[in-house]
Design brief:
Bound molecules: manganese (II) ion
Largest sheet: 6 strands, mixed
Strand content: 15-25%
Structural class: alpha/beta
Number of domains: 2
Strand order of the largest sheet: 4-3-2-1-11-12
Shape: elongated
């Protein structure tokens, strides 16, 4: 039996889209995720025997030299402790280029560095008394044949644990740019555990009797790519593969949807947001629902920004509250005339794109008629 820390998509060296100096601070802190991962693997309480990095360890193929040195230093700590380390290049840190970090540093890279361009039985290693048959590949532009989903997988060995590592996707019909994997062929290969990278939000799949799993990105890099916030540990060689997760205690990029339909004025909205933000937050508030007042995004952001590390507010509301619009429409005023005119257009339009434009015009027009700089 052995326990594996399954890592992928750490994207070390990714620079967050935040204002300086916060950007630099978050960048430096986020790069420490490799040190934290190695500390976890070395924690005797975890009983980890092997660490696998299934692609996109770095955010690009030429990370800054300091980051390379630090990463190698931490991976060496694993090697020194007798923990097996396997690194698979991904699509961000592609091995394809002549100046790729994995070509330049191949000689001093700790543990096993996968370089074969097509699915191959890389090696058989002894892990905590078990034979581990390792199948993997390193996507190499112009050499790896990925015009069709990969289907040519070496069959599982009869003896030992069969572990496959792919920075690719079983979900390629969703249109993502990735190394496509044929699920039927993968099921037929009969591996015990298929460790996947590439899909940052994580998720399990069941090709045949195998267990495939995207461990996901532990530490997020943006509001759109917020990370899963947990470590993935897999137990192998003792019955079917078992996955356990462990909270990484990494501050997430928080995204909160707030329905503004219940508020009657700006001050109520501002107060409600104040109640939910924490001092350590890097947070995005998405306003949804219908609205009865001008949410004034700039005013919100500037009055809330010193209550946390960073706040972004996005107006995703559908527009004005219907009862408010009806009330305006009944007025014998220019505003009433404007609303009636746009309402008429809304009943006549049958193109959804044009309808969007009219709703936007109703929104902007009413803001303008309330005065101010709109
Ligand atoms: Mn990735």
């Amino acid at each position: 039996m052995f326990r594996v820390l399954h890592l992928a998509d750490l994207h070390l060296g990714s620079r967050p889209n935040l204002p300086l100096p916060l950007q630099e601070e978050v960048y430096r802190n986020r790069n420490k995720v490799i040190e934290t991962a190695v500390d976890l693997a070395l924690d005797p309480g975890q009983g980890i025997h092997m660490v696998i990095i299934v692609g996109d360890l770095f955010d690009n193929h030429q990370p800054e030299p300091v980051l390379i040195d630090e990463t190698i230093r931490h991976l060496k700590r694993l090697e020194s402790a007798g923990i097996a380390v396997v690194t698979v290049p991904g699509n961000h840190d592609e091995i394809t280029y002549i100046d790729s970090v994995y070509r330049r540093e191949a000689k001093r890279w700790p543990g096993i560095l996968v370089t074969e361009p097509m699915p191959t039985l890389i090696t058989k290693i002894n892990v905590n008394g078990d034979v581990c048959n390792l199948v993997s590949m390193a996507y190499t532009g112009g050499v790896s044949k990925t015009d069709k989903p990969l289907a040519n997988f070496p069959l599982a060995e009869k003896q030992g644990v069969n572990l496959a590592l792919f920075h690719g996707s079983l979900d390629w019909n969703t249109g993502e740019r990735s190394v496509p994997l044929d699920g039927t062929a993968l099921a037929a290969a009969g591996y015990d555990y298929i460790a996947l990278g590439h899909i940052h939000r994580g998720g399990k799949r069941k090709p045949g009797n195998s267990l495939a799993n995207y461990c996901g990105m532990v530490a997020g890099k943006s509001f759109n790519d917020p990370g899963v916030g947990y470590w993935t540990i897999v137990t192998l060689g003792d019955g079917p593969a078992r996955i356990t997760t462990l909270s990484a205690n990494i501050r997430p990029w928080r995204v909160v949807d707030m329905d503004v339909s219940v508020f009657n004025e700006y001050e109520e909205l501002e107060e409600a947001i104040k109640q939910l933000i924490e001092p350590e937050d890097i947070i995005k508030i998405r306003l949804i629902g219908t609205i009865a007042f001008d949410p004034n995004i700039e005013r919100l952001e500037s009055s809330l920004n010193n209550l946390c590390r960073y706040i972004e507010v996005e107006n995703n509301t559908e527009g004005w509250k219907p009862d408010m619009v009806s009330k305006y429409a009944a007025e014998p005023t220019i505003r009433g005339f404007f609303v009636r005119r746009l309402q008429k257009q809304l009943t006549e339009v049958n193109d959804p794109e044009k309808e969007k434009v009219i709703r936007k015009a109703l929104w902007r027009g009413l803001l303008a008629l309330k005065g101010g700089n709109n």
